[in-house]
Structures are given as C-alpha cells and as structure tokens.
Fold:
Amino acid sequence: MTQAVIVSTARTPIGRAYRGALNDIRSPTLMAHAIRHAVERAGIEGGEVDDVVIGTVLAAGSAGMNLARNALLAAGLPVTVAGQTMDRQCASGLMAVATAAKQIALDGMQIVVAGVRRTSVAYRRPTWSGRAAKWT
Structure:
C-alpha cells in the first residue's frame, strides 16, 4: 500500500466576522489563495493534482454548490482537476484529509489537495426590533 504524506501547507488569513477587511471576500476566493500557495510550496504544477477535497460545514452563500471545484478553478488549476466538497459537520476537515489520504493509499492517485473551510459566519445574525428577532 502506498503511504500518504503531507508535503505542503497553507492557510487563509484570520478575519473578524461581519466587520473585518476580509468580510466581502467570497469563500472560493479565500480557499483558492490557500490552494494556490500549497501547490506552489509543494513545487508541483496545478495539472499534476488528481483531486481537491474540501471539508466545510453548512455550505451556504458563496460556499454553496461545490466549494472545492469553484476554489480550484479560482486558484488557476486546470479544468481537468476534480474537486469534491464534503460536509461532516465538526469532522469535515478531518474527513477531507482522511479521504485524500485514502485516495493516495488505496485509489492510486498521486497528488491530492485537502483542506477545510472554517464556518464562523455560516449563520445569519439576528437583529432585534422590539421583542422579536429578525434574521438578516
């Protein structure tokens, strides 16, 4: 069995929910930043990647649909690279990395990018008017 190893890492910047400088940047754009830099740091070409596996919780808004696919395209990887997004709630990141490792160890893939999108702003915030909360 082939052994899977981590050869490169990258992360997105930390921001303040609803009021920071990163507030208006969409999820695929932020994830693309991390993917692009992880691929560059690994010293590989984007076309060498077999799959991109991203874990997320409560995919909504710009993180909806297939975040992994949208992010890998935004990162400049070619359309021939596959992408899958998984939602396993709190275990999403771990599941993404475990799935990538399994794809290398058992499925014959050579290079898989794995990561997670933190979801600190997935919930809509309530605004209060009188006694009732209105979700904005």
